[in-house]
């Protein structure tokens, strides 16, 4: 029982990283209809930046905050390249983000090298019903829940959030009422960069991060986001947590080498299920 509880807690912590990356994908896709394949790079860049700032003597909190800001800045740069030119179709922007994600590898290796990095998180361990795990997992879970609650408030209670939602629902109508759709699209990339950056700084104390760790994050994040059709942050959170727990159970009771396959199988199953339901819905509408 204690072993199972330990796997559940650690799985929830890892799933939070997938949920944050996936939520960045959702925010960007809702506003721009672009699937941002550079999303995982924001996490790696922020993680590497935080490790550098901490090594230079800056305290925790300041280092992680600056690193998340760097992730947001990276998101803005990707947005400027991907959707900065008016009239760029989402398919072309998708290819641009894929190319920028690959280009980020070269930048990361040039600046930080190819060796894995990590840094200390919340010190100590916690015992719950015989299960022992790092206290940092509680920070990851608490911060993720707070971020998703904040996103709910942003989209439901603020003018900026309503403008983002309007661009998501009907960009042409949003233009008519005076909303700058391009600016809202760039803002969505900034938010996506910040969410990815937060995932990076939260997960690095429990996971060695290398320049290519974005592959794991983008696969897991996309698998979580696809559960809600790349449109619903709440379902993305649920998908990320379920995926994290599933991977932890596979690693604990089976073979850790199959964790990536778990994400791919989950993503494929959801996509097949959605494709199977779509003709039924269309037939009912007809």
Automatic annotation (TrEMBL):
Supply the PANTHER family for this chain: ABC TRANSPORTER PERMEASE PROTEIN, BRANCHED-CHAIN AMINO ACID TRANSPORT SYSTEM PERMEASE PROTEIN LIVH
Transmembrane feature ranges: 6-28, 40-59, 65-84, 91-113, 133-156, 184-203, 256-276
Keywords of this entry: Amino-acid transport, Cell membrane, Membrane, Transmembrane, Transmembrane helix, Transport
Cite the GO molecular-function annotations of the record: transmembrane transporter activity
Keyword flag Membrane: yes
Localization = Cell membrane
**InterPro entries the record matches:** ABC_transp_permease, BCAA_transport_permease
Note the Pfam families from the entry. BPD_transp_2
Q: What is an annotated GO biological process for this record, any one?
A: amino acid transport
Q: Does the keyword Cell division apply?
A: no
Q: Its topology with respect to the membrane? A: Multi-pass membrane protein
The entry's cellular-component GO terms read:
plasma membrane
CDD domains xref list: TM_PBP1_LivH_like
Instruction: State the source organism's domain of life.
Output: Bacteria
The record's family statement is: Belongs to the binding-protein-dependent transport system permease family. LivHM subfamily.
Listed name of the protein: Branched-chain amino acid ABC transporter permease
């Amino acid at each position: 029982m204690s072993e199972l509880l330990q796997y559940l807690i650690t799985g929830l912590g890892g799933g939070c990283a997938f949920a944050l990356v996936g939520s960045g994908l959702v925010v960007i896709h809702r506003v721009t209809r672009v699937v941002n394949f550079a999303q995982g790079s924001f996490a790696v860049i922020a993680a590497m930046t935080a490790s550098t700032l901490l090594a230079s003597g800056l305290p925790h909190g300041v280092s992680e905050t600056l690193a998340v800001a760097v992730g947001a800045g990276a998101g803005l740069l990707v947005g400027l390249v991907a959707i900065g030119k008016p009239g760029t179709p989402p398919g072309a922007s998708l290819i641009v983000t894929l190319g920028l994600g690959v280009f980020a590898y070269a930048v990361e290796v040039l600046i930080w090298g190819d060796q894995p990095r990590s840094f200390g998180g919340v010190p100590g361990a916690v015992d719950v019903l015989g299960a022992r795990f790092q206290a940092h997992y509680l920070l990851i879970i608490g911060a993720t829940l707070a971020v998703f609650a904040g996103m709910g408030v942003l989209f439901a209670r603020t003018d900026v959030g309503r403008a983002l939602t309007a661009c998501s629902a009907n960009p042409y109508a949003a233009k008519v009422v005076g909303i700058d759709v391009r600016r809202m699209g760039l803002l969505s990339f900034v938010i996506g960069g910040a969410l990815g950056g937060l995932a990076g700084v939260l997960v690095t104390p429990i996971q060695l991060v290398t320049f290519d760790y974005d592959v794991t994050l983008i696969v897991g994040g996309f698998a979580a986001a696809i559960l809600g059709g790349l449109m619903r942050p709440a379902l993305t959170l649920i998908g990320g947590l379920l995926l994290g727990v599933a991977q932890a159970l596979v690693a604990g009771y089976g073979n850790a080498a199959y964790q990536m396959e778990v994400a791919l199988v989950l993503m494929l199953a959801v996509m097949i299920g959605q494709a199977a339901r779509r003709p039924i819905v269309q037939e009912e509408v007809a």
